[in-house]
Amino acid sequence: MTVIEARALRKEFVVRVKAGVLRRESRVIAAVDGIDLTVSRGDMLGYIGPNGAGKSTTLKMLTGVLYPSSGVVRVCGFEPVPQRQALARRIGVVFGHRSQLWWDLPLRDSFALLRHIYAVPAADHAARLSRCRKLLDLDPFLDTPVRQLSLGQRMRGELTAALLHGPEVLFLDEPTIGLDLVSKQAVRSFLAGIGDAGDTTLVLTTHDLADIERLCRRLVVIDRGRIVHDGSLDELHARYGSRRRVVVDLDAPLVTPLALPDVSVESIEADGRRITYALEGGRTTAGELVRRLAELASIRDISVLEPAIEDVVARLYADRDRHGAGA
Amino acid sequence: MRYLVYAVAGFRRYATYRQATLAAVFTNCVFGFLRSALLLAVAGASAGAVAGYDEQQLATFVWVGQGLIGVVSLWSPPELADRIRSGDVVADLLRPIDLVWQLLAMDLGRATFALMTRLVGPIVVGALAFDLFAPRRFSTYPLFACSLLLATVICFGCRYLVNAAAYWLLDARGPQIAWTLCNGVLGGLYFPLWFLPSGAALLIVVATPFPSIIQLPLDILVERGSPEQQVVLLSVQAVWAIVMLAVCREVQRRGERRLVLQGG
Question: Which among A281, A271, A277 has a CA at the least distance from the CA of A247?
Answer without folding.
Answer: A277
